[in-house]
Amino acid sequence: MARATLRGMRRLFPSPTPSAAPIPPAEAAPPAEPTGSADPQWTLEELADAYAYPAVAPGTPWLRGNMVSSLDGAAHHQGRSQPLSSDADMRIFGVLRALADAVVVGAETVRQEGYRPARRREAFAARRAAAGQHPAPAIAVVSASLDLDFSLPLFTEPLVPTLLVTGAAAPADRQAAAREAGAVVVHAGEGAAVDPARVPALLAEHGHTRLLTEGGPRLLGQFAAAGVLDELCLTLSPRITAGDASRITDAPGFEVPLEYRLHSVLEEDGFLFTRYRRAGAAAGAK
């Protein structure tokens, strides 16, 4: 793998310093910090190892989310996440994509962020081939209305066909238009709406078990509420936006807050790159 590097990144948790207390196997720590921690230079390969998907039973989907938040809780600034991001955040964003079988995203995010097909990255070609993955992840767009422009490159020029996840009763003419453009239409629900609880297993049936969702907030909230969001990679940006931007989840409040457990924290230039796993999801993961 290419030796492109991230400079100045350090691991805050788990501590790279050996602990006297043994760590139970089910709570095993992520890979150790790269050699030379006084001046760490994280290669793409080391980042890929740090963010590798856990080992689960064959055919079992693992859905991780990747979001960025400002210090005051905003998921975006003026409709886009880029103003909250950094070079390190975008590097990790790329690594997470490179590890995934499919990137799951809501239709509104596709429209706002101008989504394009995922590209093949030479730095990850050997790793993906060894894992039996396609050269690039598929994009899976979740939409009930299918109000999308099917002439965009996302649908006409992907390396791997784009999937459209919708309900069986979604507008028939829009389903036909999507298929004509080259998209694969899959149904996650008998009505027009999408049942988020069914999405991971449905994508797994199509060979996509390593799943990454980039939102938006509404879709992430739906996955969390359905109990299928196994992991959250959350970047905390050292910026304050004010305004009325949504949080990283936009859903009705839960009667009981969902519990996630801290898995790792990296830091660079004041940005915190955290990983949390859903309580219970980590029990069968290594």
TrEMBL record:
Residues 61-265 form the Bacterial bifunctional deaminase-reductase C-terminal domain. Pathway: Cofactor biosynthesis; riboflavin biosynthesis. InterPro entries: DHFR-like_dom_sf, RibDG_C, Riboflavin_Biosynth_HTPR. Keywords: NADP, Oxidoreductase. Residues 1-39 are annotated as: Disordered. Residues 15-33 have a biased composition (Pro residues). The keyword Oxidoreductase applies. This is Pyrimidine reductase family protein.
